[in-house]
Amino acid sequence: MTKPIVFTKKCPKDAFPKADLFIELAADQRQKVKQRIELDDSKIVHFDLPRGTHIHINDFFQTADAALTAQVKPKAESTITVKSQDPLLLMKAAYHLGNRHVPLEVQAAYLRFAPDYVLEEMLKKIGLELTPETVPFFPEQGAYGGHSHNH
Hints:
15% helix; elongated; 2 helices; alpha+beta; 2 domains; Alpha-Beta Plaits
């Protein structure tokens, strides 16, 4: 078995290195600075980044010796896309989903969240159009810089 590739540092915004590797990350993976990922080609990579590092799409990361550079790309995920011709109804849906602390992508024309049959039934009952889609998911980070908590 080959050794995992360990990325330990984020490249500065003004650096435009050539990527040796592209790593697709789902929304929840983009929140974790320490994680193990198995790529499609069975390679194992680790992120071992300093606490407080933010991972965004198209960011570049390097190994400690700068021998390898990876670029982060969005991973397609199972989602539910919510639409309505009535903007007020879409706002009500955002309110109800936000009240349940659901990770939510908010756009002018739609809302998007991870599949959850209870939430889907609730939204159907108030007259919203729901479409299952496999697409990159970009939930809002929150008003407090993405800090999450349980209560």
